[in-house]
Amino acid sequence: MRKLPVFKGYTVDFRLKEFRHIVYGKPMEFIPFGSDKGEKLMNQYIKTPEGLEEYKRNS
Known about the structure:
The chain has 2 helices and 4 strands; from the N terminus they run ββββαα. It is an alpha+beta fold. The chain has one domain. It has a 4-stranded antiparallel β-sheet with strand order 1-2-3-4, covered by helices on one side. The protein starts with 5 loop residues before the first strand and ends with a helix.
């Protein structure tokens, strides 16, 4: 089993194409990669070495 990467508190799920933020006792937040916020997060994420490697692996 592989651990999903985390960026700025969001779990990055390339299979479902979404960022997820989960805090106990609060509603879960799902941000699709294609949304405005998702695109901004993805652009920031792929500027990191880990993010770029993960992006290339999953594209």
